[in-house]
Specification:
Length: 149
Amino acid sequence: MTPILSKSDAADLVVAARIRRGLSWSTIAEEIGAPLVWTTAALLGQHPMTAEQAKRVCTLLGLDEPVAESLQRQPSRGTDPAVMADPTIYRFTEALAVYGPALKELIHEEFGDGIMSAINFRVDIARRTDPDGDRVVVTFDGKFLDYRW
């Protein structure tokens, strides 16, 4: 019996097939009827897909059953520390280092004692045109979870 393809190996195959077929992440997300950022994260190994989603993606990308099988597995979430050094990813870390304490204060002021869920969570990305250069708009939409005793 052969081992199940790792999520990172499956992600590499997905990325290669997407590029070679000239497909955008949004095209793939539309094909499976799922949100863009969630779909991209799932195909990069951070979420499990349903059997139907995995089958549709693999059909679209011309990938075989071992990839579909891997896409359905429960992930070990997180990122390799080397990936965190990527300038785009590091900017998010930097933004949260600078604005995280202020966001925490504002969440507590508005909602009370609690946190924003990263499990019951949505994230979206958009482009906003600006005379000084286009802006990246990232929206975090997490359920408020109050501390209860």
